[in-house]
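Homework help board

Subject: predicted structure for assignment chain

Our instructor gave us this sequence and asked us to write out the predicted structure in token form, then describe one feature. I got the tokens but I'm not sure how to describe them. Can anyone check?
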Amino acid sequence: MASSTSPAPNFDKNYLVDLGGWSVWREGKAIAELRARHRTEWNSPVLSGEIRVGVKSYFPRLNLRSKNFPDARCNCQKGMRGLVCEHVIALCLVYQRRDEDLSTDVQVAEAQAAEPASPSMTAPEGRFEDAARKNKAKKSGLKSLLISQEHGKDLRLKIMLPPNLETSAPKDAVVFKIQAEVDGELMALTHGSRALESKNGLQGRVT
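My token output:
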């Protein structure tokens, strides 16, 4: 006989397909993904709860006293015949999801507790003002840019048009390349977030 403190089994896909079959597993998975206000409770060896489907409430119950012959019950027609219904599968999936969410929360809390304290929180009081100024400077970004004609470099743009320009232009399908030349070196240009850069330059369309 299992102890009242025994953990629930891992209700993974293979376990639930073996329990109810593929079609019942798919139906139960769809119900569990509705994110309704379901309720689950594990009291070894019994998993029970409430599964809501629209305005209806179902109360599935899965007794795992026997691992080879689990006893499934529900107030639906299939469950009242002692068959594993989609509500039992949904019950297992909701419980499994809740258990995984709780485990993730514990891991995050433990990781945060293990992190060293921030230097800004442990610094002497006189250093808080300096840290604030540095943070403000980082967030301010670039305010101005001085362009010097004396110390700057010449930039030339090279636009290469295709040989079939006469036939492609009327169709609004001109493919061209743009390159920048600095100190005799050619480089491809990018165009914001558009992925138009190729090995030899930027491809685009002209109108």
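Reply (TA_rk): Your tokens look well-formed. For the description, you could write something like this. The longest strand covers residues 46-53. That's the kind of observation they're looking for.
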